[in-house]
């Protein structure tokens, strides 16, 4: 191989290492996110929601990656693919729009927190509409994930109130989705069960699963 | 309602289908949304053997997701990520027993007479006035308990809208809704845990079952079968909930077919069934929306927005100007997406949500039309639609009026969500730019859940798909019974008018079959 060929090969190997390699293992509890996607979502989650501040939880502490995984699993295949393409775009667009600093020419998930925040600011305020839209799409996925965290909702005073669900006639007909009708657990007697039907009290108890853990 | 299992009808769910099957009925109804459910009930009440087909599953409270994106991914077609091309605008349609009624905010408005007159002029209609439909509106209102939202469940967020409108002399009123004993959880979009909303799956559908209807869920109609001027039934497949994975095949043979699959599915079924009922060339054309946009306002004191009916108050003052205003609440994560900023600044903004409420506007946009075609062989729509600049100006006017109402109600700032203007405005003087420099279509974040027009009703068979009984002009026993038959926007929320037309159509069909 000629010298220029060798240099080109070395550069290519270096670029591949910087942009497509070095991912840690994927979280085995996740069903959808690959190791690369997991790294990107974690990196973007903490850039959008850094630790500390008025709501102390960071994006990863609020378990945004777990939510993104559930969201991908719930989407139909075609739409899941669109979200995946969005992740690939953000992860590797630093090839074209590098982060500030001498070491800014790396994949998004390998950047420092400060660099990642700067990159996302660049997307947010780009003069190129598709770039802004891509940022909004990513931020929407992350924000929904942040709001799926009960502690975040509590910190904002927006956790859902407890509601005791009454049994109505239709509940005698339908099983939970995916189950046979034999799994319907209600009978006629349940229709008469007294359940509060008055307006909720905004200071009332929170929905189970959203309450603060005991001190 | 007493135990619906005591009647002669039944419901089948995905687990019930093991092999291919055939059913025989007097009438097969495709789609269990508000229009299909009313039609199925009325036909069953008239003693007809009814089979109601629904592609989505029944949702029980255990299946509801409180978080917005997961809820949409489960209850909405294309995971809630459907949008138009041309002018890019998200639009949402449900896939569930009960159709849109499972996830809508239950607003039930009657279409105003002036709009029915415009319908009559546009589409040569002779007996579709407010007076003609009044008995049908009344019957449905009695069945579903439609009533104005009581003050006790309005919560501060809805009442601030009332106060702002009052200050400015704009009439406002509690939204009439198909709800009984609302608890004010503001969760209509993710399914009513309080079982207060009378969505079709817990109202008309079980009542139809009690009267003998057979309701087959998780089945997708793929073709209307026909022979000359008559349809003979429907063929399709069982589909798994959420994944849509195909299962056994089925066929329903019937004396009449009621197509109520919704504005974006009914025309596709006609197109793929040999371009049925389309001698006018209007199937899939005239696609219209109520584009909607919203403004968020932040008040000095906490509003505690988690309490209050989802959409409790409305203003009909501007209907003749082309728009309607409402209050709005949605899962907080969905609302947060519009807040400006990143990082710590974004977190700071999010704390404002507890002090916030949202108003939205929907606009009648008669100049903005499009078309729908099938995307490949997927039964998914490919929509092309353009927002006409004059229609965008209507919505821009609405944004200014919402700003006015917020400041009249005492807001300390608003987040108008308009790309060409400041992220936040702190006074009516600052907001003045919304009036002096109205936003253009591309500046506003729009979405739409109200769709019409793709199988329009018209007195002249050369220009429309169905007649005033919603019978296809070209066929003797096919009815299209959903909001696709509206020739124009109904000026207000469409569900109630769709149901009233469906009831009239079903009563006419019951006489004939
Ligand atoms: C979030 C949201 C909020 C809204 N709020 C309001 C409101 O407050 N007030 C109001 O008036 N309107 C509201 N709307 C609009 C309203 O819900 C619709 O206008 C209404 O549901 C239309 O009824 P429909 O019967 O025509 O169609 P749909 O409700 O769309 O029902 C059609 C049904 O057919 C099924 N289907 C489709 N294709 C097939 C097939 N091939 N085989 C079998 N089944 C099929 C679908 O799964 C669906 O269940 C809202 C809509 C949404 C999405
Ligand atoms: S506001 Fe809450 S309780 Fe009232 S109808 Fe909607 S979801 Fe049900």
Molecular structure report:
- With 215 residues, chain A is an all-alpha fold.
- Chain A has 2 domains: 12-156, no CATH class; 162-207, no CATH class.
- In chain A, 45% of the residues lie in helices and 0% in strands.
- Chain A is built from 7 helices and no strands.
- In chain A, helix 2 (35-48) crosses helix 5 and helix 3 (64-74) packs across helix 6 (129-147).
- Chain A is elongated and about 85 Å long.
- Chain B has 2 domains: 6-84 and 94-145 and 198-286 and 369-374 and 452-513, FAD/NAD(P)-binding domain (3-Layer(bba) Sandwich); 149-179 and 292-367 and 388-445, Cholesterol Oxidase, domain 2 (2-Layer Sandwich).
- In chain B, a hairpin with a 6-residue loop joins strand 10 (230-239) and strand 11 (246-259).
- The longest helix of chain B has 20 residues, at 389-408.
- The radius of gyration of chain B is 22 Å and the shape is globular.
- Chain B starts with 9 loop residues before the first strand and ends with a helix.
- The mean pLDDT of chain B is 97.
- The chains are: A mainly alpha (215), B alpha/beta (513).
- Chains A and B meet through helix 3, helix 4, helix 5 and helix 6 of A and helix 2, helix 6, helix 8 and helix 9 of B.
- Bound molecules: flavin-adenine dinucleotide (FAD) and iron/sulfur cluster.
Keywords for this entry:
heterodimer, A: 215 residues, 2 domains, elongated, B: 513 residues, alpha/beta, FAD/NAD(P)-binding domain, six-stranded antiparallel sheet, 21 strands, 26% helix, binds flavin-adenine dinucleotide, binds iron/sulfur cluster
Describe the secondary structure blueprint for this structure.
The complex is a heterodimer of chains A (215) and B (513).
Chain A: H1 3-20, H2 35-48, H3 64-74, H4 77-92, H5 113-124, H6 129-147, H7 150-156
Helix pairs in contact in A: 2-5, 2-6, 3-6, 4-6
Chain B: E1 10-12, E2 21-30, H1 34-45, E3 50-53, H2 68-75, E4 85-86, H3 113-123, H4 130-144, E5 146-148, H5 155-168, E6 173-174, E7 176-178, H6 204-210, E8 214-216, E9 219-227, E10 230-239, E11 246-259, H7 266-272, E12 288-289, E13 292-298, E14 313-315, E15 323-328, H8 332-336, H9 343-350, E16 356-363, E17 370-374, E18 381-385, H10 389-408, E19 413-415, H11 428-436, E20 451-452, E21 478-480, H12 495-512
Parallel strand pairs in B: 1-8, 2-3, 2-11, 3-8, 4-18, 11-21
Antiparallel strand pairs in B: 5-7, 6-14, 9-10, 10-11, 12-20, 13-16, 13-19, 14-15, 15-16, 17-18
């Amino acid at each position: 191989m000629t010298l220029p060929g060798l240099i080109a090969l070395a550069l290519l190997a270096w670029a591949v290492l910087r942009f497509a390699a070095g991912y840690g293992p994927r979280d085995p509890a996740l069903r959808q996110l690959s190791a690369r996607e997991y790294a990107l979502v974690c990196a973007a989650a903490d850039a959008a929601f850094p630790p500390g501040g008025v709501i102390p939880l960071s994006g990863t502490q609020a378990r945004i990656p777990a939510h993104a995984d559930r969201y991908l699993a719930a989407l139909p295949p075609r739409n899941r693919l669109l979200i995946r393409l969005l992740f690939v775009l953000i992860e590797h667009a630093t090839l074209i729009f590098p982060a500030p600093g001498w070491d800014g020419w790396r994949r998004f998930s390998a950047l420092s927190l400060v660099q990642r925040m700067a990159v996302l600011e660049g997307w947010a305020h780009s003069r190129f509409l598709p770039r802004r839209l891509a940022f909004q799409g990513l931020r929407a996925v992350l924000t929904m994930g942040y709001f799926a965290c009960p502690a975040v909702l509590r910190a904002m005073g927006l956790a859902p109130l407890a509601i005791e669900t009454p049994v109505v006639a239709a509940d005698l007909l339908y099983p939970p989705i995916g189950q046979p009708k034999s799994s319907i657990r209600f009978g006629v007697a349940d229709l008469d069960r007294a359940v509060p039907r008055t307006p909720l009290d905004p200071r009332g108890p929170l929905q189970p699963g959203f309450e603060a853990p005991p001190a | 309602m007493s135990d619906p299992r005591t009647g002669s009808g039944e419901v089948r769910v995905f687990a019930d289908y093991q092999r291919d099957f055939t059913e025989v009925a007097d009438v097969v109804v495709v789609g269990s949304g508000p229009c299909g459910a009313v039609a199925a009930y009325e036909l069953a009440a008239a003693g007809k053997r009814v089979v109601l087909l629904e592609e989505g599953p029944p949702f029980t409270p255990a299946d509801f997701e409180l978080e917005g994106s997961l809820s949409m991914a489960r209850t909405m077609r294309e995971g809630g990520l459907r949008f138009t091309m041309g002018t890019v605008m998200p639009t949402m349609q449900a896939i569930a027993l009960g159709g849109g009624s499972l996830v809508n905010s239950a607003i039930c408005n009657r279409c105003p007479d002036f709009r029915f007159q415009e319908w009559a002029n546009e589409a040569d209609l002779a007996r579709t006035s407010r007076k003609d439909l009044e008995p049908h509106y009344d019957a449905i209102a009695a069945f579903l308990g439609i009533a104005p939202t009581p003050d006790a469940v309005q919560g501060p967020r809805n009442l601030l809208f009332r106060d702002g409108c009052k200050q400015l002399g704009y009439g406002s009123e509690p939204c009439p809704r198909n709800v009984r004993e609302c608890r004010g959880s503001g969760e209509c979009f993710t399914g009513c845990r309080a079982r207060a909303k009378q969505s079709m799956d817990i109202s008309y559908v079980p009542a139809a079952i009690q009267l003998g209807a057979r309701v087959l869920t998780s089945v997708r109609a793929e073709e209307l079968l026909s022979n000359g001027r008559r349809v003979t039934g429907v063929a399709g497949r069982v589909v798994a909930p959420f994944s849509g994975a195909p299962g056994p095949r089925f066929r329903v043979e019937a004396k009449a077919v009621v197509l109520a699959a919704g504005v974006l599915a009914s025309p596709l079924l006609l197109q793929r069934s040999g371009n049925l009922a389309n001698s006018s060339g209007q199937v899939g054309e005239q696609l219209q929306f109520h584009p909607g946009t919203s403004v968020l306002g932040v008040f000095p004191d906490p509003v505690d927005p988690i309490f209050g009916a989802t959409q409790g108050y409305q203003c009909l003052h501007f209907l003749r100007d082309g728009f309607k205003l409402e209050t709005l609440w949605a899962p907080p994560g969905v609302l947060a997406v519009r807040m400006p900023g990143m990082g710590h600044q974004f977190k700071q903004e999010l704390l404002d949500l507890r002090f916030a409420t949202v108003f939205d506007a929907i606009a009648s946009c008669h100049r903005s039309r499009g078309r729908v075609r099938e995307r490949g062989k997927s039964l998914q729509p490919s929509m092309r639609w353009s927002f006409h600049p004059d229609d965008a100006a209507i919505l821009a006017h609405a944004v200014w009026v919402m700003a006015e109402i917020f400041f009249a109600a005492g807001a300390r700032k608003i987040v108008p969500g308009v790309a060409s203007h400041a992220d936040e405005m702190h006074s009516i003087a600052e907001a003045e730019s919304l009036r002096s420099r109205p936003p253009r279509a591309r500046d506003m974040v729009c979405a739409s859940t109200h769709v019409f027009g793709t199988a329009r009703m018209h007195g002249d068979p050369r220009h429309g798909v169905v007649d005033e009984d919603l019978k296809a002009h070209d066929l003797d026993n096919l009815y299209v019974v959903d909001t696709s038959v509206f020739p124009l926007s109904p000026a207000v929320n469409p569900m109630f008018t769709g149901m009233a037309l469906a009831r009239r159509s079903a009563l006419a069909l019951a006489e004939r079959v």
